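Section handout 9: paired folding examples.
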Amino acid sequence: MPLSENSTPEQILQAYAADIERLKLTRGYRSADVVRLKRDPDDIGWEQKATAARQKFLEEHTHAEDEVRFFVEGSGLFYLRRAGRVTLVLCERGDLL
């Protein structure tokens, strides 16, 4: 299924359903969701929404289980701490983290 900038989260999950299912089966993941921060010039409150969504990622946090990120579009920086080292990872379209 071809995706567009207007694809819904459901359409994105459907387009990647086989890959998501493979990761669930091989790694034991239980859920998948879509996170989208996109400038919407027609939404006068988009800046506040984006700032609020971004805020939760600014402070260091941990997860009891693995978390996977697949970049369908755009990019993001992730700081990963493991074994006393911090690594900065730039993820862009097509990357799986």
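Moving on to protein 2 of 2.
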Amino acid sequence: MSIFKEFRDFAMRGNVIDLAVGIIIGAAFTGIVTSLVNDIIMPVIGYALSGVDFTNYFIVLSNGKGAGDYTTLKAAKDAAAATINYGVFINAVINFIIVAFVIFIVVKQMNRFKSVLDAAPAAPSKSEELLTEIRDLLKNKS
């Protein structure tokens, strides 16, 4: 068997195709979740914390080109100062927690809907059983 045929067989397996579809949908879903976090949830958290923005929390390790009293991270970066940007890290952790929670809720709801769809059909009601008996009796008389 040639290496190309083996690769084709591998690539055309259902699991590989499912994985590719999952990655593509996940990439598209990332944009939605990013917008949810940045445009809806983070402003609410910022408002709840009285406008606290962790982005400008940093420690200057060494001054850059200009004077060393940087009021914003952008000013420190523009001056090429060496900084530890712990505020950016805090924002990343908050974003991760929010995204993980949103994904958890989405997966939980999808599993709930799937379990409803996969549930066995309910037993026939008494009236359905009676109608079935009547149908069978009429069928047997004729």
